[in-house]
């Protein structure tokens, strides 16, 4: 596990650090207050509020540990410092769907910062895996649950990670 690194953009690292700070400095204290209030209601053995607060505390502490490990093992790659014509981590790729003709744009990011609604796909996603190492003009076939899909790579560019 010590050799495992999590690739991510600088933006992804900032998001994880922000979540960690919020969980430690805000959520942790809200949960402690909720536990104290529930305890004040008397018998905790049959107190649903107490049980829910303890469960929330357990989840929050687990997520804090997970975030700390992920941040410690982060391999931050700034797409703005990359160049070339091949698709690699951090690339923004313009594609044309071979079936529908629709154009889509994806930025290939780390697993922890993927958000399909914002056009950010994980480097481990099937589409990203099919694109890695390819260049503009190449056609790739991606296996999806609905069957194979073809995409033509229109352009490969490297933008700052915070460009939406």
Q: How is this fold's topology laid out?
A:
Blueprint: E1 6-8, H1 10-40, H2 48-72, E2 74-76, E3 92-97, E4 103-109, E5 120-122, H3 126-131, E6 139-144, E7 147-157
Helix pairs in contact: 1-2
Structure overview:
By secondary structure, the protein is of the alpha/beta class. The protein folds into 2 domains: 6-76, Helix Hairpins, CATH 1.10.287; 79-157, Chitinase A, domain 3 (Roll). Helix content is 38%, strand content 24%. It is built from 3 helices and 7 strands, in the order βααββββαββ. The protein has helices at 10-40, 48-72, 126-131, and strands at 6-8, 74-76, 92-97, 103-109, 120-122, 139-144, 147-157. Strands 5-4-3-7-6 form a 5-stranded mixed sheet. The chain has a two-stranded parallel ribbon with strand order 1-2. α1 runs antiparallel to α2.
Largest sheet: 5 strands, mixed
In the CATH hierarchy, the third-tier topology of the largest domain is known as Chitinase A, domain 3
Q: Using the coordinates above, name the CATH class of the largest domain.
A: Alpha Beta
> What strand line-up does the widest sheet have?
5-4-3-7-6
Q: Please tell me the overall pLDDT.
A: 90
Show unreliable segments.
none
Number of strands: 7
CATH superfamily annotation of the largest domain: Transcription elongation factor, GreA/GreB, C-terminal domain
> How does the helix and strand content classify structurally?
alpha/beta
Taken from the alpha-carbon principal axes, the silhouette is elongated
Terminal CA distance reads 33 Å
Oligomer: single chain
Count of discrete alpha- or pi-helical segments spanning 4 or more residues: 3
Rg, alpha carbons: 21 Å
Range of strand content:
15-25%
């Amino acid at each position: 596990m010590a050799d495992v690194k999590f690739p991510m953009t600088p933006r992804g690292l900032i998001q994880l650090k922000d979540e960690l700070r919020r969980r430690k400095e805000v959520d942790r204290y809200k949960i402690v207050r909720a536990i104290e209030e529930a305890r004040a209601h008397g018998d905790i053995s049959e107190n649903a509020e107490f049980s829910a607060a303890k469960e929330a505390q357990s989840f929050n502490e687990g997520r804090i540990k997970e975030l700390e490990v992920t941040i410690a093992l982060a391999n931050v790659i700034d797409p703005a410092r990359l160049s070339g014509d091949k698709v690699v981590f951090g690339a923004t790729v313009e594609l044309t769907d071979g079936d529908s003709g629709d154009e889509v744009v994806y930025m290939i990011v780390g697993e922890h910062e993927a958000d399909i609604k914002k056009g950010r796909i994980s480097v481990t996603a099937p589409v990203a895996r099919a694109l890695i190492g390819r260049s503009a003009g190449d056609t790739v076939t991606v296996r999806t649950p609905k069957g194979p899909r073809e995409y033509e790579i229109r352009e490969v560019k490297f933008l700052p990670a915070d460009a939406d």
